[in-house]
Amino acid sequence: MWHVLINVILPIYILIALGFLSGKLKKDIETDTITFIVLYFFAPALILSSFKNINLSIENIKFIVINGTLTIGIVWIAAGIISKKFYRKRIPALEISSAVMNIGYLGLPLIYVLFGEKALGYAISYMVFVTIIHFTVAIVALNPESFKKGLYETLKIPLIYAVIAAFLLKKVQFPEGIGKMLKLTGDSTMPLMLIAIGIKLSRIKPDKLSPAITGTILRLVIGTFISFVVVKTIQAPLLLKQTVFIQSTLPSAILNFVLCDRFNQNPEISASIIFLSTLLSPLWLIFVIKILLPAI
Question: Membrane spanning segments where (predicted)?
Fold first, then answer.
């Protein structure tokens, strides 16, 4: 347990804590610039440098789609049923914040620490699939009139084009200097992502305890066990199974709050779920990594 805590979880949460502290001490720090640099420069470089070592077949892509669809979809439906039964109305913020995990900003660094660079191609592929869901299905759920807007936002995401370029250039041997530049730039992505999470968390105010507990249980516990059943049932390379499973166990995505706030759909509920699930995630990850991961 201590090995997992000290060598896997602690380094990640130290960077998140530094971001949180920075956000509290310096109120004028904005994550927009960090996000822009990460999305448009650093993350594409990470994709181009890491995809060289990944063989992503049609079967592997199908596995990613099935796991993501079932894990997110079942939790989403469960959140909808619970919100209607106990809160007497549909609460889109509870649904999206319970269903969609922090697969990028937290997921990529965690996968890198756990499995090394060889797993990043799988992690990025899963992240791209979940991001597409985020900018289409999630936006429609929050605002049914915004499907075209969601599709437009999806097409603006540079990571999608970086993945396509990585596939097309997979067998191209870059000059040594270009390869080193891509690796150096890509390696800077993950610490920046974690610090950005901390800054964002310092700005949200968790004040909805009941839906926060409900959403956290759905996201961490139910989402984890759905993914566990999927990876145990469907054939795929072991590293792909492990990567996708770990990413499916993570806390609620920061982007959930951004979208809920943008469409005025109970952002305080989303903030509370994100805060509580992120706070409890280290304890849950110890259980996941020590008990469930070896059983895959």
Answer: 6-22, 34-51, 63-82, 94-115, 121-143, 211-231, 269-293
pTM of the model: 0.85
Q: Which residues, at least 6 apart from 60, have a Cβ–Cβ distance to it below 8 Å?
A: 122, 125, 236, 237, 240
Q: Evaluate whether residue 188 is within a structural domain.
A: yes
Cβ neighbours around 41 below 10 Å, total: 15
Give the domain CATH number at 139: 1.20.1530.20
How far is CA 45 from its chain centroid?
Answer: 18
Q: Is residue 92 part of a domain?
A: yes
Domain membership of residue 191 (yes or no) is yes
**pLDDT tens-digit series, residues 182-232:** 889 988 888 888 898 888 888 877 777 889 999 999 999 999 999 999 999
Closest residue by Cα to residue 255 from 79, 132, 146, 125: 132
Q: Which domain holds residue 90?
A: 29-295
Q: What are the tokens at 296? A: 């895959």
Give the separation between CA 133 and CA 135, rounded to whole angstroms.
Answer: 6
Q: In the numeric block, which tokens belong to residue 137?
A: 């299905």
